[in-house]
């Protein structure tokens, strides 16, 4: 903008206008280094009349929230005072040229041993919204997790929605009364385990009690006529959840730290690993309203689990009473969907589309270089090795989770695979290719395959291997995830580290390219890092493999991950420094002491 010099009073007027114009422009915050120390230890917590030794960060469940501004750098010093080896994964952080900090044990780093420390460093450039962090070791995620909130560089007035009165993290989780490392081992050995209660922000709620005394529930105090931004995270291991607040609606404005076209609904469906930002307007009659988190599950003949609901209370401050004390009336309860009715989840996810013309949004690539069709199933391996044993739940076999009929085998290596990859080690030859399609075609969604039987038994045998797929730098990859009915019909929340993906379409039944590519949304598809594959259905995604490194791709159900529904996507170096994996950090952990 040019300004001309004017004489006398006119000059003073011009200076005043210039000052006013500059004052109206919101200040841009300088990029900062945000530093935290996470002390991981075990503390005694009492719920349901039982004292449990819980592994937590800084004595908190959930753990501390990391609040940053887009473009900031983050430094987290992890001090491991727990008895477990562990790593921390920064779920949804893209880690551009920083795969070393992704936090996957023996894939990107050595685990942090008990009584050892490690410092993670990463930045949040080009990302806004809600992400989260969690342990990436066994089932410790259940209690070692917390929110990451990334606000816009230009301040809250630059949100593409009305500026909220307050922003509230809502973390849905589980309370376990058994040792989490042992629970992980049990699942790996086909021993059933289950959590004891659902939680909202670490609180069980008044549906649970000890000797007749109700458990405390999460309380959200609100003022009438205000707009609140709920930053919802599903940190659970075992279930997708329906979330409702009686007498209120949600307007969903972001998913997985990507803005979406505003979508109004009375129920949120959120799978493990997903995050959602939703506006709630407190326009109901002043009172108390239950916030209910209901775990979903597939209907029979799938194995059935207890329905463990958590509920908190949204309570209006009564401005007419001294001290603004809330009402003590019985809260109003919402009408919840049936927990075996998964249609609301299907349509909720189908209704998410990207908000057009946001500066961080990239166009959908139209050229596709690599096509993959990946079936998500259960199967079994022989407990003593080999291929001949009794199956269908026999003690001679172990139930595993698979992608294209292979279950992931954790690599037995002396250094992380990423380090071996960087040094072009011949040890990388032990990886087995993740195939472009399953080795055999069958009626993937035939419900008669859910219970053990003669037809299911033909499909059950599988193999174990360290599965990986290599992509050249910049390749455009399209993946269709196909759910199956083999031994179970669960949905699958598939999470890809180091990348966001375009969710082109989803459907029920078996994917048919000739029919279903015409349904692809190439204009404004949702952009996610965790993709919900519907029960007995499919989802098609597309992404650009432009972040060099080895990236974990897995189901975010804890039991499926432990059972082997995992693969590695290896993005090769390009020809420039900006497209090549940098050298390991100078303080990179070594595994010589493991």
TrEMBL record:
- Enzyme class, spelled out: oxidoreductase
> What protein is this chain from?
laccase
Q: Where is the Plastocyanin-like domain?
A: 41-153, 167-298, 437-573
Q: Per its record, what are the GO molecular function terms?
A: hydroquinone:oxygen oxidoreductase activity; metal ion binding
Q: What are its GO biological-process terms?
A: lignin catabolic process
Provide GO CC annotations from the record: apoplast
Q: Name one Pfam family in it.
A: Cu-oxidase_2
Which SUPFAM superfamilies does this chain map to? Cupredoxins (SSF49503)
